[in-house]
TrEMBL record:
PANTHER family found in the cross-reference section: BETA-D-XYLOSIDASE 4-RELATED, SUGAR HYDROLASE-RELATED
GO cellular component: apoplast
Similarity section: Belongs to the glycosyl hydrolase 3 family.
Name the UniProt record assigns to this protein: Fibronectin type III-like domain-containing protein
Keyword presence, Glycoprotein: yes
Organism placement in taxonomy: Eukaryota, Viridiplantae, Streptophyta, Embryophyta, Tracheophyta
Signal sequence segment: 1-25
Alphabetical GO biological process terms: arabinan catabolic process; xylan catabolic process
Cell compartments where the protein resides: Secreted
Keywords: Glycoprotein, Glycosidase, Hydrolase, Membrane, Secreted, Signal, Transmembrane, Transmembrane helix
Amino acid sequence: MNRALGCSVLLCFLFLTCFNSSVSAQSSPVFACDVARNATLGSFGFCDKKLDIDVRVGDLVKRLTLQEKITFLVNKAGSVSRLGIPQYEWWSEALHGVSYVGPGTHFSSVVPGATSFPQVILTAASFNTSLFQAIGKVVSNEARAMYNVGLAGLTFWSPNINIFRDPRWGRGQETPGEDPLLSSKYASGYVKGLQQSDDIDPNRLKVAACCKHYTAYDLDNWKGVDRYHFNAVVTKQDMDDTFQPPFKSCVIDGNVASVMCSYNQVNGKPTCADPDLLSGVIRGEWKLNGYIVTDCDSIDVYYNNQHYTKTPEEAAAKAILAGLDLNCGTFLGQHTEAAVTAGLVDEAAIDNAISNNFATLMRLGFFDGDPSEQTYGKLGPKDVCTQENQELAREAARQGIVLLKNSAGSLPLSQIAIKNLAVIGPNANVTKTMIGNYEGTPCKYTTPLQGLAAIVPTTYQPGCSNVQCSTAQVDVATAIAASADATILVMGADQSIEAESRDRVDLLLPGQQQLLVTQVAKAAKGPVILVIMSGGGFDISFAKNDDKITSILWVGYPGEAGGAAIADIVFGSYNPSGRLPMTWYPQSYVEKVPMTNMNMRPDASNGYPGRSYRFYTGETVYAFGDGLSYSHVTHHLLDEAPKLVSVPLEENHICYSSNCKSVEAVETTCENLDFNLNLKVKNNGSVSGSHTVFLFSTPPSVHNSPKKHLLAFEKVFLRGKAEELVRFKIDVCKDLSVVDEVGNRKLALGDHVLHVGNLKHFFSTWLRHFEERSGSSGATIGKTMFHARAALWGRLRHARTKTFCTRTTKSNNGDKIESNVSSYNEAYKQLDKLDFMTAAKMLFTQPPKKKQFGIDFHLVQLFFACMPSLAVYLVAQYARYEIRRMEAEQEEKKKQEGKKRQEEDEKAKELELKEEEEKVKSNPVILEVKTRLGKLEETVNEILAESKKQSNQGDAQNKSESSSSIEKEHVGKPMPGLGQRKPIVSQPDQMGKTQNAQPSKDAKK
């Protein structure tokens, strides 16, 4: 070693020693309003925690000079010692753990590392919104803990939520994938976990997150085109349908504290200088409560690289006037004062920008004095790399790993049966590769080899010196595979293949990796498991179709515990449940699709196949949402979901256009316009595990809508043979809408299909122009027809000078005939004859050859052709009328059946009584009693007759003697005993004596 080299090494050593010592020595956080050191600060309004933040910000801004204000427009904000404000570094990163990328964060002997979770693309593959938020919470705990000892800031520029539009993009690994809904859910979930503003006060932040890179940024460096010069030409439809939803969700649902604009231009304007994108959308439409920051040196880029402005002062002014608050870099610090002097921007605009920055710091407690006395002040080194945090990192990797192939159930492997496991591949024993980019120093590493070796004996051979695999050591690798009970090949990519500023040029495995895999599989004695470690997908059709390769796993970049998670899946201690968050295309895709083409939708005229599962029309290697498990899960629809959803319009709105295939949601009455889809999800296997239930929708073919798109998803845990109820609520106006060609979201009318697994539900959405009111069906029909005629009348009145509508039909001999209506009077007269029931019925029947019901049927046909929305409405009304009629018939039928059952019951009772009587009649005891009672009745009657006879004889003898005296005595008085029966207690005998009557023997009986 020569002297010069020795001196250089010594200087480097001394520098590193001093740097580490300074970092280790720093054990206190940076904060303002330290009243303990300077009591006068307590008199400043911006240090008064009792005041509203807006008041505090206003007090601070008015105390600053213009030069001081400008120092707060850059990431390395200046200090103002007279106000007790220290220097603050805004730039820290926490993409999937606290990162050392960015000058705001350092690791030291105090905190040597932080929990490193899987790269975002793998976490997104879990489709677990609870996991997204849980990871964010752990990361913010560790970030706050590091801030409390002076090793980190409070503003973290994460997450990256750009759409993974093209599989070649090097930064796709940082994103949640290609789907707008999944990306939106990840954005809001991770941000909520980081900021935790929902847990305390929405105006208070644990740390400040930042959603980036706004917008339509997904190309870094491809075939000579880089992000600094790229103009993304994006249609309004694709912008609002694909690229904007994640950012909208991040701001509105996640309440993020910051948004970062990107390097690229969109439709000819730099995003960081576009007032429509910044002030118009982020602040105006979405109501951002926070600050807008540039990607680093973006203003310098659009001045020096894109030549968007003529002077640097103009570039600075355009950024501030567009709505930018903070510049990552030094450009605004260097050129803003000159821009003010030149009159390009006024000081009020600068005040507005730094006010947004100060408000964010105040929400973080930066101006509240000593952090140790605040909510998160007790967090420290003990809260970093805890056992619980590391276990969550392992769990996140397990939930994200995707099983793409499993022939004959080759996985899971048996720990007992495997005596020797061959582990081969350039990624089999890697450490840093598992972390991905924007990494930090992890708590510890567990490589795939280490994870597998902890379970069974292994034999390891890298096969290639690195993932470039320029030369494969095929002979050595095949030799160990031939003698092993099973073989695992860990292949794929690393940051030398895909990374920031490094896009791929193809989708094939690098170098001789495919050769190595194929030869090893051919030589292997036991099952062969291919493990792909990567951010983007690969064309591995060769492995998918190779019977010797029994299983395929995609493990993303699985984080610090990736090796343990892979082993858990391979040996069955964990049931895989990950699903692909992006499409895996064949190599032929990239051969005909340039990365620079931003169009999502296909174009048949030039063979352009479109992008993502929502629009791509070609073949795939693996599709979005693909993934297997060790269980078999089925889905069943529990309740009958609606087949027809009618959408009311405002009363003054008549949709009569021939192209009325959708309506703007603002024109509809969306309140309570929803329905539930209730599903039973059953695990038919014996292995417990989690399962993601996807709800997809295929809308009508309007506005070049997606083939299908994800409406909702839910992850459920299912024990073996168990089932769970999953309920999706469908918001008709929101979930069933599509974006039209000019960027307006509209509710699609017509036939929709909902997909859950192999289950499909078909239903239709139709317009209801006017609310039905209570009353008879006839009244409703009459009102409907009245408004239908009025709508057509209005249409005709505006077409006096031109043909109203033309319809091409065929005559009986097959000739084409063009029918048109140029006279609105004729049309109205014909329409006036058209009664509702006739019109609706005619839609259900074959067209008659002649006039029917006195109406020109071709004109009727023309009416429905030119007025499709009204025709649909009439049919729907007729259908409802028929339903009501059938319901009435069913009700009447039920009444008749009830009456019939009642009659049958009565007959049954009568029959039962008769049977009882017959039983009584046939009883010998009762018959004997009845006989004796009959004889007794005869005897009594004989006695009564004899007594009456004797009484009559006595009366006749005395009548003449007593009649005169009696008459005299009883004149004017009622006769005694008149109308009464004479008692038979005593009778006079023939001797004139009175004797007691003696009953006869029969009477005694």
